[in-house]
Amino acid sequence: MHLVIVFLLSALLPLSHSHGLDSRAWDRFLGLRPLGSQQADTKRGECPELCDCPSSFSVAMYCDGRGLTAMPSVPSHVKYLYLQNNAITAVPDSALINANSLLWLMMHHNQLTSEAIGKKAFLKLDKLERLYLQHNNLTSIPSNLPRSLRDLRVNHNKIEKVTPADLEGMDNLTVLYLHDNAVTDMSTSLKSLKSLTLLDISSNKLTKVPDALPENLYQLYLESNSIDSLPQDFLGRFTQLQYIRMSHNQLTDKGIPANTFNVTGLVELDLSFNKLERIPVVSTTLRHLYLQANVIKEFTLGSFCSIVDVTNFSKLQTLRLDGNEISREDIPTESSLCLRQASSIEV
Ligand SMILES: *[C@@H]1O[C@H](CO)[C@@H](O)[C@H](O)[C@H]1NC(C)=O
Ligand SMILES: *[C@@H]1O[C@H](CO)[C@@H](O)[C@H](O)[C@H]1NC(C)=O
Ligand SMILES: *[C@@H]1O[C@H](CO)[C@@H](O)[C@H](O)[C@H]1NC(C)=O
Ligand SMILES: *[C@@H]1O[C@H](CO)[C@@H](O)[C@H](O)[C@H]1NC(C)=O
């Protein structure tokens, strides 16, 4: 078996020599160099052995999917660092000490725990814009994250709590992925995120909508939590909000104040898989409404149109009502005037 492999490889060797592969690369290819030795002889400015630093794009360093268990040393000129899909368990305070040019740090799909991230590990990265930590074993958001972040992904971890100090002063943060964690309490942590446009906290353990949601949100994803009611004037403060997903919660009619969803600007509202018995009143400007798998017993045309005439009618295009307690016969014929743009109504 070994003989065959060596034979095949030696047949390839002349070709690869002409492409300038050195013996170190061959060792790496053959798996002869032990893992864990990657930090041993790296000098400042050099590329760590297990990583690739393409000369055509020297600001990037690719160390993804190499079986790393520890941080490689990072030269100070690197802006884009790819460390995803490894088994890195810790980021000590000293790991990124020279890496003050970093713009992107990709560390998703590793084995990081919160205890193993130094309190100052990310503190000096004052240009960092993207930090990807999804699919690790974090139980909290790392402390002292750079305030320069624009895109922070910590989804698919084991985070239980988000505190105001975790996100304070992140004026430029526009995307925050927190989904698939175990968050029960957000307190007022989102308050200062004035640039935030996309917030995904789906698949957590929230029992209420987080307080102090940022006003400039464009997409709000809260599905698969245990939310049973909404605060008064929940949507009144938003100026840009177009997409709300709240499927798979515990919402009841009683928990939704009147006219909550009768706000212009909304494009899509997903309230499927809840416990609603009535169709909530929605704005005539809404385009897509998902209400499947509730316990709706009645088709109330007034939920879509309070008056119907040439100019007053619903802009709804999609309406899903399947998996409720009504059938097509329950939809009055006058509906076609109000719902004149609905190309698909499922019951
Ligand atoms: C991370 O979590 C996974 C799954 O729960 C577990 O198998 C693994 O041992 C954990 N790793 C560490 C470093 O805690
Ligand atoms: C936010 O972005 C602006 C403009 O790009 C920049 O001047 C500012 O320093 C950034 N804020 C932080 C906290 O990094
Ligand atoms: C929804 O809001 C509009 C505009 O504010 C208002 O005219 C309409 O009566 C409201 N619909 C219902 C059913 O209250
Ligand atoms: C209905 O249309 C008229 C114009 O025909 C308009 O003045 C009025 O504000 C509309 N009412 C609603 C509730 O949109």
TrEMBL record:
GO terms for cellular component: extracellular space. It comes from the Eukaryota. Keywords: Disulfide bond, Extracellular matrix, Glycoprotein, Leucine-rich repeat, Proteoglycan, Repeat, Secreted, Signal. PROSITE patterns: LRR. It is found in: Secreted, Extracellular space, Extracellular matrix. SUPFAM superfamilies: L domain-like. Affects the rate of fibrils formation. May have a primary role in collagen fibrillogenesis. PANTHER family: AGAP008170-PA, FIBROMODULIN. Binds to type I and type II collagen. Belongs to the small leucine-rich proteoglycan (SLRP) family. SLRP class II subfamily. This is Fibromodulin. The lineage of its organism: Eukaryota, Metazoa, Chordata, Craniata, Vertebrata.
